[in-house]
Design goal:
The protein has four domains: 2-30 and 137-293, Rhomboid-like fold; 35-133, no CATH class; 295-400, no CATH class; 516-646, no CATH class. Helices cover 56% and strands 11% of the residues. With 651 residues, the protein is an alpha/beta fold.
């Protein structure tokens, strides 16, 4: 048994009222229909039993097609015919009195009418989609009806895990329309598969499968926590990314759907609407992919919802939203500026101010607050926030000045999202801020990025880095070749206006880069501002933290040894084009973090040290921002397992 019990996404920006309403309607519908359904089922079985009993006593009577259909559903057409014939041969002969024979036939027909009436009055049949007896309203009502407590609670729990997060990023009206449409599509495809099926399809699982498909695309890398129970004695939990587990669930539903069609064709999945799940999930994936491709969220959704509804109990933002709703947009901006003057860390106020100013074509006043919010998001590793709002900054047409270090980090995030041309634009903006006071590590990081992305700024940045006396010696040979480059490298990917860029013949046949790790084990000795002093073979070296592109942190179990925490400083990003990733590797058993940052508690000091490394370097935190800070550490059995899953090393 495998049950999802949660995932790493734990908060939303607004209360998910649509999800709560759907859950409430499902519960209310169940409470109203379940007691009646129970008594109706008892009556149905009683009526059916009386009809069969009477026919058994009078087998010479004509069997109504409705009663025959019950037998066919249970035994199949051939066995049903044989069973009826056998009953007639073994039973009594018809009476000679025609009036008596007519009264007996009327009695049997009356028992069948009672059974049929009991079936037709079923709350589930009234609310459910019956392919053989279609009624348009049921394509909505069936989504709120459920058979039993297990059916209801299972569906609502899965909806609670996924629904609020899609509602949060798509907005309530769009999410509500998507949810109901997913349910309708799932039912339509079920009807197309079983057009003659004469039983009701009920339950929210088709619509919820659509939400799961959207969750897969929108939060593909989110870790989902599962509870497993095998043979009554193997019990525990584990985490796995959505991109792995949700497709596996989809494949299971697809296999079961095909298997049920093979075993019992035309019977609607044997009580479980597998095909409804399959098509609901496909619909959700398709819609989410379309949203991502056309940038629906960035272009239309975020600006319309984030200026109105933000974090609960954020009274200043709510006040501004009310003013904007009433038409006093200038008053709303004044209120938000006042809030940001007092609480500059209020990201929701910054976003709301930005959205109002963006809509009014006056982003100058809100740009400093937006850039501050983006910088905070960069430090916390919130890639989605950064890419979404940085693209808005680029679209605004404002001549924004980008700190070189921040620009390098944003370009990394954009590259991870395959926003190649936007990453190049970002690097070009960052390069304008490079001067003699820019740290060598920052220039080196920009130069490496520019080379990897094919920016025209690569040679100039390489030359600037080479002129800095603080440039690490090992980087000079690398950059001397770059400085001689004549032009940009062709790039592949959509341009900001949506057109496809030109490519060379050589670039079309490029193979994916296979990475390997070149790790240098060191012992940290001193953290001083922008640099980390380490010891290697008894000699001291200084690392400019601005050159670090990724910081990966995890626990290593180590068989028959005490577990350790491993900290890798990557000078090359694992999604870049360099096959050999240069890694500076440290383990918690080789040093005392209290000697680096002070304090009495070793674990607390270790986490403070990690926080400082991440904040100083602006590096990408892996496996995720929380794990990289020990909240908690993600654990692996071996270093090889960590390198494979976190760094993507396959060799």
């Amino acid at each position: 048994m495998l049950i999802p019990i949660g995932h790493e996404k734990t908060s939303v920006r607004r209360l998910p009222w649509v999800t709560f309403v759907v859950m409430g309607l499902c519960l209310i519908t169940f409470l109203f229909t379940h007691p009646g359904e129970q008594s109706r089922m008892e009556q149905t079985f009683e009526d059916l039993g009386e009809a069969f009993e009477y026919f058994g006593e009078h087998p010479y009577l004509e069997m109504d097609q409705r009663l025959r259909d019950v037998l066919v559903q249970e035994y199949g057409p051939e066995q049903t015919t044989a069973l009826i014939e056998m009953t007639r041969q073994a039973g009594p002969k018809p009476p000679n009195n025609k009036d008596l024979l007519q009264r007996e036939q009327e009695t049997l027909d009356g028992l069948i009418d009672a059974f049929s009436s009991s079936v037709d009055s079923s709350p589930l049949r009234v609310l459910g989609v019956v392919p053989a007896d279609l009624r348009v309203p049921t394509f909505i009502t069936y989504q709120f009806a459920h058979v039993g407590w297990g059916h209801l609670l299972g569906n609502l729990f899965i909806l609670f895990l996924a629904g609020p997060f899609i509602e949060d990023v798509w907005g309530r009206p769009l999410y509500a329309a998507f949810y109901l449409t997913a349910g309708i599509v799932a039912a339509l495809m079920f009807v197309a598969r079983y057009p003659n099926f004469d039983a009701p399809l009920v339950g929210a699982s088709g619509a919820i499968a659509g939400v799961m498909g959207a969750f897969l695309v929108r939060y593909w890398n989110t870790k989902i926590k599962f509870f497993y129970w095998v043979f009554f004695f193997m019990v525990g939990t584990f985490e796995a990314p959505a991109w792995l587990m949700l497709p596996l669930w989809f494949l299971k539903e697809l296999v079961f759907a095909q298997a049920m069609d093979a075993v019992a064709p035309g019977e609607g999945g044997g009580g479980v609407a597998f095909w409804a799940h399959v098509w609901g999930f496909v619909f959700g994936v398709a819609v989410a992919c379309a949203f991502a491709y056309f940038r629906i969220e960035e272009r239309f959704i975020h600006r319309s919802i984030e200026s109105k509804v933000t974090l609960v109990d954020n009274s200043a933002v709510e006040e501004a939203a009310a003013l904007a709703e009433a038409g006093d947009r200038d008053g709303a901006k004044v209120a938000l500026k006042r809030e940001l003057a007092t609480h500059p860390e209020n990201v929701d106020a910054a976003i709301s101010l930005w959205n109002l100013c963006f809509q009014d074509g006056e982003v100058t006043a809100s740009m400093p607050h937006m850039m501050s919010a983006i910088r905070r998001a960069v430090r916390s590793g919130d890639d989605q926030f950064v890419t979404t709002h940085w693209l808005e900054v680029l679209d605004s047409g404002y001549a924004v000045d980008v700190d070189p270090g921040l620009g390098a980090r944003i370009a990394e995030m954009l590259r991870k999202e395959s926003r190649i041309n936007e990453a190049i634009v970002t690097l070009d903006l960052a390069a304008k801020g490079v001067d003699e006071s820019t740290p060598a590590g920052v220039v080196l990081r920009l130069a490496r990025q520019a080379v990897d992305l094919g920016s025209e700024q690569a040679p100039a940045l390489a030359s600037t880095a080479l002129s800095n006396p603080d440039l690490p010696p090992e980087a000079r040979e690398e950059l001397e070749e770059v400085a001689a480059l004549a032009g940009p490298v062709p790039v592949v990917g959509p341009t900001p206006d949506g057109s496809e860029p030109s490519t060379t013949e050589d670039s079309a046949g490029d193979e994916p880069v296979v990475h390997s790790v070149v790790a240098k084990r060191v012992v940290p000795r001193r953290l001083d501002g922008q640099t980390l002093e380490v010891e290697v073979d008894g000699k001291r070296h200084v690392i400019d933290l601005a050159t670090v592109q990724v910081i990966a942190v995890c626990g290593i179990a180590r068989a028959a040894q005490k577990p350790v925490v491993l900290v890798d400083l990557l000078l090359d990003s694992p999604w870049g084009d360099r096959p050999k990733l240069r890694v500076i590797r440290m383990t918690s058993d080789t040093f005392d973090p209290r000697l680096l940052v002070g304090g009495d508690d070793g674990m607390t000091a270790f986490q403070i040290w990690l926080d400082r490394l991440l904040e100083t370097s602006d590096a990408v935190p892996l496996p995720d921002p929380d794990s990289a800070r020990g909240k908690p550490f993600q654990s692996f059995s071996t270093i090889d397992a960590y390198e494979k899953e976190v760094l993507g090393i396959t060799t």
